[in-house]
Predict the structure of 2-nitropropane dioxygenase.
Amino acid sequence: MPPEAPLSAAEPAREAARAQLERLWARGRDFLGCEAAIMGGAMSWLSERNLTAAISNAGGFGVLACGSMTPDLLEREIAATQALTDRPFGVNLITMHPQLDDLIRVTLAAGVGHVVLAGGIPSGGAVRAVKDGGAKLVCFAPALVLAKRLVRTGADALVIEGNEAGGHIGPVSLTVLAQEILPHIREVPIFVAGGLGRGEAILAYLEMGASGAQLGTRFAAAAESIAHPNFKQAFVRAAARDAIPSVQLDERFPVIPVRGLANDGTKRFLAHQAETVRRYQAGELTKEAAQLEIEHFWAGALRRAVIEGDVETGSLMAGQSVGLVTSVQPVAAIITELVEQAVAALASRHTIATPL
């Protein structure tokens, strides 16, 4: 019988690196109940049953985006997701939804173990309903003072999302939020989000004290995403600088900042704002009517881009990590790549540290 081939010099380093990564995100993995502490960002029209289940089946943690769904529709979507995966996944609910109480009830009745409350500070009643129902509560914290408040009021985990992210964004980058929050909040797991597209970046935040990461943009262009091929190819072609926040022309008419790919629609939005302000100043519109004119410009625009493939006038919500999307990949390949990048970064340190 031939002797066994000796281990290559790199293999012990990789084994040590993988074990170190497991230690770094063990808290996040245990909290989510998955193999890799990588959450899917909840994206309207995209984070439905197929993408959510694919992320969970690949060892990550899928999150179903409720958005503006009715309770009946959410109930059906949860059931459809459960038919595609037997692994844990979460449901993202918007705190401003007029039927939030019913949505929480439906989610809990379906046996979902993690509820993400987004879009604002959740009410005490919503927090109690989730926790009394036996689910784990995840909240978004845009600043340290709010992170402390959310932990005091019952959040079981936090997501801190920088303005590099796609969709609705806050004013602070993840690099600053991480420095502000991670050293001071130890009571609950914290997941970082915004601009993440490689495993080395995730590793850096884990070493700062994060328990895991949340990614949206890379999964938006995944093979299992129901997004139109035009939408995915727009992501593949885009550079980081193409993902820009919406521009506000007049402070009297606030525009909620949303990051997306610049296209003909973003140019038309600027012209629409200018024309609306002109009509207001001419007395053709009241201030309230002018604000509604501006707010309604993007109505249905995300669906047009995601489902219908209108990448010219639709809303192409994307984070700056879109520049790292170079092809349409299966979700499993994306997660494997992220993990291997983190392991390789750690292994290189072990190799350097090991004397010849």
In short: The chain is about 45% helix and 15% strand.
